[in-house]
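Purpose: get a first structural picture of the assembly so the mutagenesis plan has something to point at.
Setup: four entries, given in the order below. No constraints added.
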Amino acid sequence: MPTMTAAQRRAAEKRDYDAFLDGCKSRALLDRLTDKWVTLVLAALRDEGTMRFSALSRRIAGVSQKMLTQTLRNLERDGLVVRTVTPTVPVTVDYRLTDLGTSLALLVLQVKGWAEQHMDLVLQHRDDYDAAHA
Amino acid sequence: MPTMTAAQRRAAEKRDYDAFLDGCKSRALLDRLTDKWVTLVLAALRDEGTMRFSALSRRIAGVSQKMLTQTLRNLERDGLVVRTVTPTVPVTVDYRLTDLGTSLALLVLQVKGWAEQHMDLVLQHRDDYDAAHA
DNA sequence: TGGGTTAGGCACCTCCAGGTGCCTACTTCC
DNA sequence: GGAAGTAGGCACCTGGAGGTGCCTAACCCA
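Result (structure tokens, whole complex):
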């Protein structure tokens, strides 16, 4: 059978897509950046240098302990953040960016800069569009 | 009552967080970039200049029509993409980046560049971490 | 003696982004 | 006459990201 049904073609495309994703580093990075709190943690650590868990959870208002822990674990796992435990009486844990983490944070800040410069325009477009298609 | 319970404090933080998000342009931008297909569409349009719907769905293997449509609508709504309908016999629709869209696409490509340079290191860290914490 | 602090662990629940399938209306090709 | 291509619309469904609440263990303070 030389031809394919639409369903067969889509299945083939999906295989391509999956294979593509496995080797796609930018997708992997995007998945990390996509996490709701990652960029906020990067920004906070870049501003403050070193922060304790409690300081981070205060600075990033609204984050749950679970999500902050999860986010920091992932960043540590990826070598973007170092975790230092000091066995004082209630144990103290410090987090800071690695060089790698810092270089990524700088990029994230560029995106933030774009947003601050251009998002007003985007929101304007959005309102116009909504008004036109009401 | 001068003190707060932990629950009260968290509720207050959540209010702060919500208020914070409403005025946060970079968060709004991130929400857009977060959409699974947005970056791929930006990259494709930047490479090819102008593309038809079907060309995009072929280029971005694995995307469903629904998601491609939704992604393009959002990008159009935000003024990052222009949609041009040509009433040929089966109607033809072309998409291309606006200047605003192009400037954002360039930023996205920088992130992609970071990924291509450094993701190996990240993945290495990830493996080491997993090995150490097995 | 009960509450606050430290940095989380664990279990359950919710909600929606994204996926799938089926539909159109017109035309051209086999 | 049936299939494929054109650009989607619409309804339904599921997985997993993210949230909530309750737990610890050792200490301090009022």
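Residues 7, 10, 52-54, 65-66, 68-69, 85, 88-93 of chain B lie near DNA strand D (CB under 10 Å from a C1').
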